[in-house]
Structure to design on (272 residues):
């Protein structure tokens, strides 16, 4: 197993790409996870990939912005996004796919489009466990995983903890299968009332961190003797994921510092 850590562009969009890439490189990340809006033009993508190559940073493009409630429009928008990023080399794609209210058959058609993209490009597509998307809950994703043997996921268990309002101890089969099918991890810590604890370094969030570490440990244990590239993105986000102090509009802690802490913690934990 080769383990690589990716820094989210999310929350750093205000930073010039050269400055951002230099900061990412100096911090010890292997690459960048880059959320690409559907309307992004090729000239912008050309520039970003040029900067990433300049600093020798790998990239995981992230799809998140297909919001159409009409399935046919949604399908076309999603397919167009995949076509847009097809020319650009990537380690993997992280995809927030489908809608929670689409039928199994509808979401499966979107998964088929992603599978065809993977065959054409050789770039694995990992479907992120995310609220509002098809894998919004552990028990729902379990059904998809059972019925689609080739389905691979980005495990972001923080969303499932929030949706289920629990640490999922009553869903061991769903968690075990999800761990088995995980090819990418979003290392954010959720809790029963929200998808992001205010600060995972604080002792009051030790229980929440512990549950997530158990799941991530299990993924790494399965991958340890494989030839795969295992990828992790510490993905604590900015406001409104990040709590702000009342009346000040100031974040309760520093997003960059929290993600860097998670990267350093997990690198030390999983490096032999």
């Amino acid at each position: 197993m080769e383990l690589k850590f990716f820094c989210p562009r999310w929350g750093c969009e205000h930073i010039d790409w050269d400055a951002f890439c230099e900061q990412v490189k100096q911090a010890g990340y292997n690459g960048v996870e880059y959320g690409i809006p559907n309307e992004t033009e090729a000239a912008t993508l050309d520039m970003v990939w040029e900067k990433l190559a300049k600093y020798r940073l790998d990239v995981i493009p992230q799809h998140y912005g297909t919001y159409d409630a009409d399935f046919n429009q949604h399908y076309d928008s999603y397919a167009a996004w995949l076509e847009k990023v097809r020319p650009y080399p990537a380690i993997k794609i992280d995809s927030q796919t489908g809608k929670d209210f689409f039928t199994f058959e509808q979401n499966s058609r979107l998964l088929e489009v992603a599978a065809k993209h993977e065959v054409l490009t050789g770039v694995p597509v990992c479907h992120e466990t995310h609220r509002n998307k098809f894998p919004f809950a552990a028990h729902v994703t379990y059904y998809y995983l059972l019925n689609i043997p080739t389905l691979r996921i980005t495990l972001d268990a923080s969303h499932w903890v929030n949706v289920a309002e629990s640490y999922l101890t009553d869903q061991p089969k769903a968690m075990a299968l999800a761990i088995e099918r995980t090819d990418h991890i979003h290392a954010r810590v959720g809790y029963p009332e929200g998808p992001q604890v205010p600060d995972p370094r604080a002792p009051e969030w030790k229980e929440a961190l512990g549950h997530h570490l158990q799941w991530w440990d299990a993924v790494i244990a399965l991958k340890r003797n494989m030839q795969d590239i295992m990828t992790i993105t510490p993905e604590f986000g900015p406001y409104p994921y990040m709590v702000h102090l009342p009346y000040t509009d100031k974040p309760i802690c520093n997003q960059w510092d929290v993600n860097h802490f998670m990267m350093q913690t997990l690198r030390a934990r999983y490096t032999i």
User: Anything to note?
Assistant: The domain at 2-270 is CATH 3.20.20.150 (TIM Barrel). The beta strands are 2-8, 31-35, 58-63, 93-95, 125-128, 153-155, 182-186, 229-233, 244-245, 250-251. The chain has one domain: 2-270. The longest strand covers residues 2-8.
